[in-house]
């Protein structure tokens, strides 16, 4: 489709995030979900990494299993608590396996746990990956439309985001949010500072209110009051929570795509049903 200006919009890019399962049954569920999510033909899938290396083996094993399913699978990588030598070793391992994409993060360490590591910010990690491996990896980083909870101000956080992009990131995935305006405002401010790489909204399906409220408090995501009240009113009625959640999140995704977001990154929570339900509802 070509617009009047002659500009041909790119079709939206979809991607899906998993976390390493804790046991064999969880791994089977994850791989089943990944099989079902084939329907949406994700550009890539990614696998989270426990800061301090706590899921290092699990991340790698999950990435390998997803690659065996034919996916371009990207490990997340965090620098907090890691030495340069450890990071170099991990990157070499990924290169040997032919992995070409990583998601580079600072990570969060539970307070009082272990040494701080050699690198302090995600921008240091991006610089390190570029210095060590040139342009072998496509690097995604994290963005925070509602501000990272530890940032001093939205301006400061944006400046740090821009620094991370200039260090050599190819794209960004946002923390999840429920206010489309926060995303558009952030993306506009980033573009005004010269960021041209895609900033893809990270989207969390709503399936469980208490878990969502807990996560959101931790990562600084606002659940709008009307959504919080509606979800709380459903109590233990999980079917209604899912149905309402799917409506709300589908509308959010449609608003984002209609407003020019380059794609959607789904936080699948290792389940296919909600992500697929949202994806199927979208006019792409
Ligand atoms: P940074 O970009 O380093 O920012 C962290 C804070 O430091 C911000 O407040 C920023 O403003 C500030 N800052 C940055 N640079 C500077 C500087 N030079 N001087 C002063 N302040 C600075 N966590 C995991 O442990 N494992 C995962 O797999 C994982 N995956 C994620 C995927 C996505 C898409 C997102 C959005 C988050 C993910 N996280 C993950 C969470 C992430 O690790 C935390 O949000 C963490 O607190 C910040 O990581 P960051 O890479 O954004 O850090």
List its salient traits.
284 residues, alpha/beta, 9-stranded parallel beta sheet, 9 strands, binds flavin-adenine dinucleotide
The hetero compounds bound to this protein are: flavin-adenine dinucleotide
Assembly state? single chain
**Percent range of helical residues:** 40-55%
The ordered string of helix (H) and strand (E) elements is EHEHEHEHEHEHEEHHHEH
Form type: globular
Question: Which strand order spans the largest sheet, edge to edge or round the barrel?
Answer: 7-6-5-4-3-2-1-9-8
- Please give the count of helices: 10
**Rg calc:** 19 Å
**How far apart are the first and last residues' alpha carbons, in Å?**
12 Å
Give an overview in words:
Helix content is about 45%, strand content about 15%. The chain is globular. Mean pLDDT is about 95; it is low at about 1-5. It has about 280 residues and is an alpha/beta fold. The structure holds flavin-adenine dinucleotide. Flavin-adenine dinucleotide binds near residues 48, 103, 121, 151 and 156.
